Amino acid sequence: MGDGPAVKATRLIEVVDPAAERYGVKRAFVMRAAREEVAPGETYRALLGTGYDAGRALVEISQAGAVLDRFWTAAGRTQWPV
């Protein structure tokens, strides 16, 4: 089709089970928001994970410089809802 070389486009798509306890992709750290924007009164939801065999994270939630919540993720998992 035409005289030029063939063109190929690729895109990596990551599919993650939000209910899983283990993050299956071999990446050191990932945080994915369910939505990029959240309106006042709505709840922010995200997924936090590590591709290592074990790992925990210190999660700190703040607003206007004030810490609202701070906690360590549960041991024994590599994926957590936040």
User: What composes the largest sheet?
Assistant: 3 strands, antiparallel
Fraction of residues in helix: under 10%
Task: For the largest sheet, list the strands in their spatial order.
Answer: 1-2-5
Radius of gyration: 18 Å
- From the N-terminal CA to the C-terminal CA, the straight-line distance is 50 Å
Q: Which runs of at least 5 residues are low in confidence (pLDDT < 50)?
A: none
Basic shape? extended
The run of helices and strands is EEEEE
Strand content: 25-35%
| SS element count, helices | 0
Please give the number of β-strands: 5
Report the mean per-residue pLDDT as an integer: 92
Q: Helix- and strand-based class? A: mainly beta
Q: What's this entry about, in short?
A:
The protein is mainly β. The protein contains no helices and five strands.
Description:
By secondary structure, this protein is mainly β. The chain has a domain at 30-81. It is 0% helix and 29% strand. The protein contains no helices and five strands. The strands form two sheets. A three-stranded antiparallel beta sheet has the order 1-2-5, with no helix packed on it. A hairpin with a 2-residue loop joins strand 3 (58-63) and strand 4 (66-72). The mean pLDDT is 92.
